[in-house]
Each structure stands twice: as structure tokens, then as C-alpha cells.
Amino acid sequence: MSYSLTDIFGVLPELILVVTAITAILVDVASKGKDSSATMLVTAVGFIVSGIAAISGVGTIGVLMNGAVFQDGFTTAFRAIFCLIGFLTAIFSPAYLHFRNIRLGEYYPLLTMSVLGMMVMVGAANLLLFFIGLETMSISLYILVSLNRTNSKSIEAGMKYLVMGAFSSAFMLYGIALMFAVVGSINYNDITNYFLADPTLGPLTIAAVALLLTGFSFKIAVVPFQFWSVDVYEGAPATVTAFMSTGPKAAAFVVFIRVFGIALHPVASHWTLLLSWIAILTMVFGNVAALRQTNIKRMLAYSSIAHAGYLLVGIVAGNHAAFAATGYYLAAYALMNLGAFAAVIIVNQRHGTDGSYRFDALKGLGFAHPLLGISLTIFMLSLIGLPPTAGFLGKLYVFSAAIETGHIVLAVAGLLNSIIATYYYLRVIVLMYMAKPEGDTTIPRPLPYAITLIVLSVLILLIGVFPEPVISLMIAVAP
After folding, report:
1. pLDDT at 401 > cutoff 80
2. Which of 295, 307, 325, 446 has the fewest C-beta atoms under 10 angstroms from its C-beta?
3. Quick check: 478 and 324 in contact, CB under 8 A?
4. Residues paired with 69 in a beta bridge
5. Which residues form the domain of 275?
6. Total structural domains in the chain?
7. CA 390 from chain center: how many Å?
8. Long-range contacts of range 276-281, CB-CB < 8 Å, 24 or more positions apart?
């Protein structure tokens, strides 16, 4: 196969991240691991340059690399979102990792390669390239999760994630192989055309779809394959948990849209009901389990499961408006969840706490630390889905799309679950402003965290009050 300059420039954001990861490794070797600031700077600059390269491709539509890579607005938008997530994670990681005495040398290259895998996933035009991107992302995450070698929970989380990830990858790969056996191609467009011509499902096709759905269910942590996620989220370094719950989840949902929402749409009647029940059970399980938590990190982990259920509503709705709404929701969720974890990380460094992430650590912090209190309040309100935050409009758009396509029960279930979730999110705000602080309220406030909290809070309010640019963009670029 031969590739033109157009092909090379089309994957420039990914190539920049490859160069960034290699450069970060070389810089760390040159400094003998004694100065991580240069490695962090290289990584942050790499994400900025890669994001700019991604945005420069806006308006270009087509396929690259002999039909293997999408060059469309949806890919461009999420490339930019992943670079923003990677950049913010990179700049607020050093303070936490130093606090936990975690070596930084391998952290930044692994973070960069994980974002690279996410970009490959969303740009893939066939199942095999998607799988390569998935494994690039996953292998990097397996190591990041277990990076705190002195913490038994981190090692345990890494092993659980590795084992469960291997199982889910096997399901996915078997599904891809069977789909190739049925269709004779793994290209998304070929799969769509095949089922448009013959929408009947034989035993082999049913097995292929079931295996693919199982693999995706593991990756996005929905019922009944969510059991690994909470322990992994709790045991992983908090910055890694913040990253995992945003970027990789968004990448998996984008591919879910491309595979089930588009490629397998001609046979949607065969899997829509099943996915509806999975969405409802996921919402209920995530919210009910979150109600019982005394650990903020575990609460946010169960919350992440519930939000996966809300996002599935958009997949079930299955039209262009629903996919645009899901894209908006994914962008909003990435911002508010990353912000929530950034704030919680700061709180947990109070008095050098032991990593328990207890709710009691929040008492009285709203008045003692106004920036932290206001930011965390905005993140919680957005996770609930209250105006004028981006989370409100994300849920509104997704549930409206479900109603318009006749999935009223699903929309009502989402609304009722959002009401249930209000309790445990408001609990955070109540503790910050209506409970007496316990002891000294001094908290270290590194500048990168302050910048992250301000940027994310402003973005959540901006796209909540002025949603037209973002939703118009998603409507224009959604498949």
C-alpha cells in the first residue's frame, strides 16, 4: 500500500503524540529521573500541538490510509477533547504523584500513548484498527493503574484490570473474527451495506453481535460487566482514575456509536430492547450503589457507571440527533468528572491523609477554600443535571432524543434515576457548607490545580449557558 501526503497530514495529531511520548522518555533518561518538570512540560506541549493539529483539520471529510481512517468532524472533535483531557491531567498530576511518592518518568509517556490509542479508536474506519487503538490505550492504562508500586490496592487494581481487560479483548476479537466470517470485511461501511442488503441474522451473526456487545459492555462498564470498575477506580492513583473515567469512556462510546449506531443500525431491532434493559439496569445499579458509599472516590466510580447508563439512552435512540446529543453529553461529562476528581484529590491531601477519601474530609471546606468549594459545587450540580450547567443540557438532549424516537420508558427511567442521584451529589455540597470543619482546614493548593478547577468550571458554565456552538458543532459532525 502507498500513502500520500494527505494521508500523512490527516494522521498528524497521532504522529505528534508518538513523537511526544518518545521525547518524554528521552528527556527523563537525560535527567536520570531527577527532574520531572521537563517531562511534564514536553507532554503538555505535545498535547497542545496535537490538539491544534486536530482542530486544523476541521471541515475535511473523507477517508484516509486506503479507507482505514475516518477524516470527519466527529473524529476531529474528539481528538481535540482527548488532547484537552490529556493536557489537564498532565498539568495537575505532578503535585499528587509527588505527594504519593510515585515515580513520574514512565507516567507521562504512558499517558500520552493512552491518548494516542483513544485517537486511533475514534478515527478507525474498520474493526481491526479500532482494536489496535483499544489495545494501545488499554495496555498503557494497565500499567498506569498499578503505578503506585508501594500500594497493595494499586497493584491489586492493576491485576484486576489486566485480567478483566484481557477477557473483554478476547470477546471483542472473537466478535470481530466472526463478523469478518459473515460479512467478508471488517470495514464499517461494508458491514452497513451487507446488512442493508440482507437484515436477517443467522447463528454466526448473532454470535458476532453478542460478542461485540459483551466486549463493549466491559469497556464502558455497564451491567452486568461493571464489577471490575469500582475496585480499579478506587485502587488506581487518583489522577489515573480521573483520566480513566473521562477519556477512555468517551472513546469507547464514540466507537459504540460507529459500530452499533451506524454499522449495525440496519439490524437494530434485534439488539435495541436488550440495550434498553442494560441502560436501565446500569442507571439503577450505579445510583443505588452510590447512595451507600462513605468514600468519595467509590461514589464517583459508581456515579460513572450510572452515567454510562444515561449515555446508552442516546445509542438506543439511534438517530442523528441522538448521536449529536450523546457527543455533547460525552464532552460535558468529561469536563465535570475530571473537575470533580481534581477537586477531590486536593481535599484528600488535607493533613497528608491516607488516601481514604472520606466524605468527612469535606466538612466546612466551602467557606475555608472558596475556589475549591465553588468549583466542586459546579461539578456536582452538573453531574446531577441542574441548570445552568452543561450536565443539564446533556441529559435534556439525550432524553429528548429518546422521547422523539418512542423510547419514553427509557427517558422516564433516566429522569427518575437523575432524581435519585441528587441525594449523594448534594451530600457533597451540604458537607462543604453546612457542616462544621474537623480540625485544621489547611489544604495545599498548587497552582496547576487552581488553573484546572477554574478552566473546567468556566467551560461547564459556558457550554451550559451558551450551548448553541457546541451542540451545533455536534449536529454538524455526528455520523
Report:
1. yes
2. 295
3. yes
4. 64, 124
5. 271-479
6. 1
7. 16
8. 276/316, 276/407, 276/409, 276/410, 278/217, 278/222, 278/223, 278/309, 278/312, 279/222, 279/309, 279/310, 279/312, 279/313, 279/316, 279/410, 279/413, 279/414, 280/309, 280/410, 280/413, 281/223, 281/224, 281/309
Q: Is 276 a domain residue?
A: yes
Q: What span, in angstroms and rounded, lies between the C-alpha atoms of 301 and 311?
A: 15
Contacts of 243 by beta carbon, 8 Å cutoff, 6+ apart: 85, 86, 89, 111, 114, 144, 338
Q: Is position 24 within any domain? A: no
Q: In this structure, is residue 340 part of a structural domain?
A: yes
Domain membership flag for residue 214: no
| pLDDT number for residue 350 | 61
Q: Residue 449 is placed in which grid cell?
A: 490545580
Mean pLDDT of 375-390: 92
Cα–Cα distance between 307 and 301 in angstroms, integer? 10
Instruction: Map residue 210 onto helix, strand or coil.
Output: helix
Give pLDDT tens digits for 155-173.
888 888 888 888 889 999 9
pLDDT (average), residues 217-243: 87
What percentage of residues in the chain have a pLDDT greater than 70? Answer: 95
What b-and-e string marks burial along 273-298, b requiring 16 or more CB atoms within 10 Å of the CB?
eebbebbbbbbbbbbebbeebeebbb
